[in-house]
């Protein structure tokens, strides 16, 4: 697997389809391993809370889920990995690789989403657990979610809790000795696949403007993230370019 460093993390330099193929090839009986898909919001949070970095380093697979970062990095002359969004990887796995009778464990989807999933894929065996909100502040609920995933082994375990809860849960599941299969930290990926949330048109995605589309859909929830917090990513990329130039000068 070819990896390229990006803002302190080594990320897969592969398209979404190739990553989906890689995940699907892992035996369901193999020890639990999870995928994280950091975007601008994740990288900003990692700078604010460096202790979270171990959660991402513990992931078996990491890929870049931000075309905005890729475009800004290219403009700055950085060599960054190819973009592979979690939503695209998930869609390929569910459409191409999830077979009739397969077990799918889902942590975090609401009851309405579960009904939509069962309607769309009635021939798969779905194990579902919906933890309460504030999971990080409720050790008993967090442990219950971890135990549910471990006691319901599946080919794919979808952690749909939002970041950083889902990544921390993925690490906790992987730390146990009894969990198997592939875990995906997918955020709203299932809602996109089910059509419960609209995705940006393909052209906007290619332009790195999916964030703008999502902002227009959920302005109250996302305005601060996209218009205030995430702009720090530009400073991080400029710092990375400066460090790369310094490394080249010294070598």
TrEMBL record:
Please name the GO terms that the record assigns under molecular function. Answer: hexosyltransferase activity
The record's keywords, sorted A to Z, are: Glycosyltransferase, Transferase
Annotated Pfam families = Glyco_tran_WecG
The superkingdom listed in its UniProt entry is: Bacteria
Keyword Acetylation present in the record's keywords: the answer is: no
Q: What is this protein called?
A: WecB/TagA/CpsF family glycosyltransferase
């Amino acid at each position: 697997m070819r990896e390229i460093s990006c803002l302190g993390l080594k990320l897969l330099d592969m398209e979404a389809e190739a990553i989906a193929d890689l995940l699907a090839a892992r035996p369901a009986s193999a020890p639990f391993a999870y995928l994280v898909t950091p975007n601008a919001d994740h990288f900003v949070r990692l700078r604010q809370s460096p202790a979270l970095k171990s959660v991402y380093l513990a992931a078996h697979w990491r890929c870049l889920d931000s075309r905005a970062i890729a475009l800004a990095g290219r403009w700055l002359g950085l060599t960054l990995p190819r973009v592979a969004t979690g939503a695209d990887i998930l869609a390929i796995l569910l459409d191409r690789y999830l077979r009739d009778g397969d077990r799918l464990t889902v942590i975090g989807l609401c009851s309405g989403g579960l009904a939509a999933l069962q309607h769309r894929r009635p021939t798969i065996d779905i194990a579902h657990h919906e933890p309460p909100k504030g999971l990080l502040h409720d050790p008993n609920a967090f442990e219950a979610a971890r135990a549910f995933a471990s006691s319901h082994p599946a080919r794919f375990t979808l952690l749909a809790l939002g970041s950083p809860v889902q990544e921390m849960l993925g690490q906790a599941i992987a730390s146990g000795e009894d969990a198997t299969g592939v875990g995906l930290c997918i955020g709203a990926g299932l809602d996109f696949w089910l059509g419960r949330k609209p995705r940006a048109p393909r052209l906007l995605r290619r332009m790195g403007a999916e964030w703008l589309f999502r902002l227009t859909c959920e302005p109250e929830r996302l305005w601060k993230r996209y218009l205030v917090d995430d702009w720090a990513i530009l400073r991080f990329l400029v710092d990375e370019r400066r460090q790369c130039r310094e490394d080249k000068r010294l070598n």
